[in-house]
Write a structure and sequence with these properties.
The chain is globular. The chain has one domain. It has 8 helices and no strands. Helices cover 78% and strands 0% of the residues. It is mainly α.
C-alpha cells in the first residue's frame, strides 16, 4: 500500500510539473478510488436521483483536471480534494433541484410525492452544506473530517491517513463535529 501511495504521489508531482504522461499513468490508478468515493456519495442519495455515479465521477474528473493552482502533496491530499469536489457537485445538483419545479428521474412515487421528496432532500443537503461552511470557519479540521467521513465515506483509519492524524483524534473530532452539526442544523430549522 505504501509503494502504491508513493507511486500516486510521484505521479501527482510529475503531473504538476507539466508531465502529461504522468497524468495518463495516474488516472487508471486513482479511478477505482474515485469510483468507490462516488458510489459512497450516491449510496446516500434517494433512489431515482438524477445524477448517476458515472456522471459524478466524470464531472469530478473534469474538475480535478482543471485544478491548476493546487500544489499536490500526496495521495491523501488528492483524495481529500476529490471528496470536496464531489461534495460540491452534489450540492450544486441539489441547488438546481431546489430552484426548479419539476424533478427529473424515474420514481415509483406519484409525481406530486416524488417532487416533494426531491425538494425535501435537496433542502436537507443545502442545509448541511451551509452548516458545514459555518463549521469550516470555526474549525477547519472538523469540517474536513466531516467531508472525508460523511461525504467521502472514508473510514476512521482512512481519514486519519489522509489527514496525518491518529485514529483516536479522528474519532474524537468526528463525534464533536456531528454533535455541533446536529445542534446547528436544529437551530437553523427552528428559525
Amino acid at each position: 500500500m505504501e509503494a502504491f501511495s508513493a507511486q500516486i504521489t510521484q505521479l501527482l508531482l510529475s503531473w504538476k510539473k507539466g508531465d502529461e504522461t504522468a497524468f495518463e499513468e495516474l488516472i487508471p490508478l486513482v479511478y477505482p478510488e474515485l469510483k468507490r468515493l462516488a458510489r459512497r456519495y450516491m449510496g446516500r442519495e434517494n433512489p431515482g436521483h438524477t445524477l448517476q455515479t458515472s456522471a459524478l465521477i466524470n464531472e469530478a474528473y473534469l474538475r480535478l483536471v482543471d485544478q491548476h493552482n493546487i500544489q499536490w502533496q500526496d495521495r491523501g491530499h488528492f483524495f481529500a480534494v476529490a471528496t470536496r469536489v464531489m461534495r460540491h457537485i452534489l450540492i450544486d445538483h441539489a441547488r438546481g433541484h431546489a430552484r426548479t419545479k419539476r424533478g427529473g428521474g424515474a420514481s415509483h412515487l406519484p409525481l406530486d410525492d416524488a417532487e416533494a421528496l426531491m425538494k425535501e432532500r435537496a433542502a436537507e443537503i443545502i442545509e448541511l452544506d451551509e452548516a458545514l461552511q459555518t463549521l469550516a470557519t470555526l474549525d477547519p479540521r472538523k469540517s474536513q473530517i466531516v467531508e472525508l467521513r460523511f461525504f467521502g465515506g472514508l473510514t476512521v483509519e482512512e481519514t486519519a491517513e489522509v489527514m496525518g492524524l491518529s485514529a483516536i483524534t479522528i474519532k474524537r473530532e468526528w463525534r464533536s463535529a456531528k454533535a455541533w452539526l446536529h445542534t446547528e442544523i436544529s437551530n437553523r430549522i427552528a428559525r
